[in-house]
Amino acid sequence: MPDDQFPEDMPGQMIPQSSDLSGVLQPVETARGLPNAHYTDPDIYDEERKSVMFANWAGIGFAFDTPNAGDAMPVEFMGMPLLVVRDGDGGLGVFQNTCRHRGMILVEQKTNVRGTIRCPYHSWCYGLKGELRSTPHVGGPGQNLHENIKRNELGLTEIRSYVWRDIIYVNIDGTAAPFPDYAAGAMARMKDHDKPLYHGDGFSFEVKCNWKLAVENYCESYHLPWIHPGLNSYSRLEDHYHVKNDGAFAGQGTKVFQGMQGDNGEVFPDFNGLPEFWDKGAEYPVVFPNVMLGFQRDHFFTVLVLPQGPEKSIERVEIFYGFDPAERPDLDDLRAKNTAQWKSVLKEDLFVVEGMQRGRHAVHFDGGKFSPVMDNPTYDFHHWVAKQVEKGRTFGG
Amino acid sequence: MELKALDETLLAAHAAQDKSMLVSLYHQAGDHMLDLGNIDAACFYLTHAYIFALDTNDPSAGAIHRILASHGREE
Lengths: 397, 75
Ligand code: FES
Ligand SMILES: [Fe+2]
Known about the structure:
A: 397 residues; alpha+beta; Naphthalene 1,2-dioxygenase Alpha Subunit, Chain A, domain 1; 10 helices; B: 0% strand; flat; binds fe (ii) ion
């Protein structure tokens, strides 16, 4: 092979550049948004995967996905194979979905494990709490023990997880503050809503944008009158306010929420015992990085933004109520109407988040400019992301 | 059962992923080898019986485990 095919000396070779975040770290008045590369560049996507998603508490799924003892559900989160398992005591564990022997993927599809999780390769068996229970033939045929195979050291690799409002959060690198500290602002603010939740309905859709654009758009109310004119009848711009940023938490609220009514005047029962504020209040905050929440007096929803690459995401929407839908078939139609309304509102946002994504390929776009009055939650999110990335660059190995 | 016949039945059970059948066939093969005094072969088969019993939460897992443990093959 001629020498000039070796890349070391090639002129103009692309060396991955780390992005310049100094503009994002300014106060809102003078700040710039995150540079284009944070929306388009695979290297920066990988960097954010590590510094933003894996170093914090990201939402990956829901506890109701695995209701019964032995339910095991594989979840691939940004390429990381995870396994959610409901154990015999009702506890939920999240593990790396790989065998401790040769790294085989353990569970390919959602299943109910009757006995143990048996690796499909050499049949090492794990209990529902991740403990290694047997290692067949590991010491030779018919000999399942070996002094170097210490079962108590070879359980499944557990990933830190926490369930809040039925959402499964994971901190993959294990370095974040405990979830109740990390999300203290969100938990305190939403304390009124600590009520039993019943899952109603859900839907998912793909969106051709970087995961952050979905979050940024959700954070602000500035776009409401333009993108969601239908909301205007009951929700005007001046009735909205910012939910104050507290660490990894920001969003917007409204003072004129009206519950949904059916054709025959039927309404959803409210969550029990909510303070008066919620009669007309509703709030739409984001627990950074990727969990968007919607609190109303009669239902709660959450949207998980699941990155599928630098320019593609899946939004998974699940809607919860304060009553058991199985006991109120008379409200089935109203629930369907509510789901349809959220679906249409969220789909109204598609062309803007996808349009902003394509806009990130404009080489002269400089991250944009924030309205110091209207864009604060979006700015908070940019600032927070930049801080996480910076932390990774300073301390990350 | 003849070993050859057992082999064929085993292959059929593997193909059908009939795990409770696999537990019982491997268990039989193991017992047969124990009768012949071939401990290594017996523990080989019993290991398979044990793993499929663990897999399916088969009630025979405990008994099979005791045999394996008594020969120093399991914890
Ligand atoms: S890789 Fe799982 S048992 Fe070998
Ligand atoms: Fe919107």
